[in-house]
Amino acid sequence: MKILAIMGSSRKNKNTHKLLDIFKKRVVKEKDEYKEVILKDLKFSGCISCYGCAKKPFCIVKDDLTEVYKDIEEADMIILATPIYFNSLSGLAKNFVDRTQVYWCRKYILKLPPIKEKIGVALINGGAPRQEHQFTGSELVLDHFFKVTSCKKHSIVEIDNTDEYPINEENEKIMELLDKVDYDFKENRIYRLWGGEITSEIE
To answer: Using one digit for the tens of pLDDT, what is the confidence trace for 160-178?
Structure first.
């Protein structure tokens, strides 16, 4: 299986990156092909709304995402890891997601077959203690992202209060949360660690 991981935090080796590393150990098997893209290291713009992809089935903006599109299209699983900023994805992650407009145009304007079906996973964490609608903005964005990138099944892992309880393998609650994930990804599900309580629900 080809697994593409997108790290959408501006801080390397901090909570978001560590969550991705911990998750990777559980989901990636020896025979899998794993590629990790750190958005901070790339030079790319947000979507400029030129609608070039409404005329041709590719993004006409040429930057470091040009190669990443190939990875998206070939992947069997895509993992997007991002912190929560203002109740939504980080700016880096949102700019990346906006650039997948090309796949929306491919499907709905150009009427071309969708790209290869895959599994979608989102790993999102907020530094603040649990607040109303803390993750709602991210969930709405991710719903569209999973659809346009042809994720037939998806899972979302949400963790709050990471400023006080950082993400690492010594954090027993986080390890317990990840133990509950169905790594066969048979249904769309959200796994949450909110206020120290672990829950999961089918979407």
So the answer is: 999 999 999 999 999 999 9
Query: Helices H, strands E: what count in the chain?
Result: 6, 8
Residue 118 and residue 1: Cα distance in Å, rounded? Answer: 10
Pairing of strands 189-194, 118-125: unpaired
Q: What is the pLDDT of residue 131?
A: 86
- Rounded CA-CA distance 62/170 in Å is 42
| pLDDT, tens digit (0-9, with 9 covering 90-100), for 108-141 | 999 999 999 999 999 999 999 988 899 999 999 9
Question: Would you call 60 helix, strand, or coil by DSSP?
Answer: coil
Burial 73-105 (b: 16+ CB within 10 A, else e): eebebbbbbbbbbeebbbebbbbbbbbbbbbeb
Please, are residues 156 and 139 in contact by the beta-carbon 8 Å criterion?
yes
Segment holding 26, helix H or strand E: helix 15-27
CA distance 50 to 47: 8
Count of alpha carbons within 13 angstroms of residue 50, beta-carbon side = 14
Q: What is the mean pLDDT of the chain?
A: 96
Inter-residue contact 65 to 96 (CB < 8 Å): yes
